[in-house]
Amino acid sequence: MNSENLIRRYVITGSRRFSNFWWASVVFLGATGFLFTGLSSYYGKNLLPFIQYQNITFFPQGLVMSFYGILGLLLSLYLWFTIIWNVGGGFNEFNKKDGIIRIFRWGFPGKGRCIDVAYFLKDVEAIRVDLKQGVNPQRTLYLRVKGKREIPLNQIGQPLTVDEVEKQAAELAKFLQVSVEGL
């Protein structure tokens, strides 16, 4: 068996998804519009050509719009930083060559920025599939290791079909030579 068949690495996207770029941009543009509208009503001149400040008095409408604009800009800043830091991104590596499973994720800056845990392959008991139906269906793969710890393996916010989850679970269980639970 060559080394390619002994190591599998699954990349986890994290916060660098199109939807996060979209919402960070939309919130930034909306918040900027609110802030400029509030400031236009305060200064008594049109800071943007399409804003008519005469229709908005500063107190209370302009003040409230400025407040919402500042809050929106702070939310946008938070979203952009999570994208830049790639919070939640990382990989799951299953290495038969060294007998180790490594799960790595990026977090927010600070002491716990990198989440890097490793388990021995011999400690893996099963791959568990959790399927929850309803308005907000959840389909999650878990790695069950000795001590009854369950580590989620798939990405948040990435809904998979039941067939995809079953296929991933079967493929991973076959590679690790363990059973699949929950199907």
From TrEMBL:
Q: Which UniProt keywords apply?
A: Chloroplast, Membrane, Photosynthesis, Plastid, Thylakoid, Transmembrane, Transmembrane helix
Residue intervals passing through the bilayer: 21-43, 63-87
The answer to whether the entry has keyword DNA repair is: no
Organism domain of life: Eukaryota
| Bilayer topology | Multi-pass membrane protein
Sorted alphabetically, the Gene Ontology BP terms of this entry are: photosynthesis
| Matches recorded under Pfam families | Ycf4 (PF02392)
**Any keyword Heme?**
no
Compartments reported by the entry? Plastid thylakoid membrane; Plastid, Chloroplast thylakoid membrane
Per the record, its GO cellular-component terms are:
chloroplast thylakoid membrane; photosystem I
Main localization, broad class: plastid
Q: Which InterPro entries match?
A: PSI_Ycf4_assembly (IPR003359)
Q: What does this protein do?
A: Seems to be required for the assembly of the photosystem I complex.
Q: Which family does it belong to?
A: Belongs to the Ycf4 family.
User: What is the protein named?
Assistant: Photosystem I assembly protein Ycf4
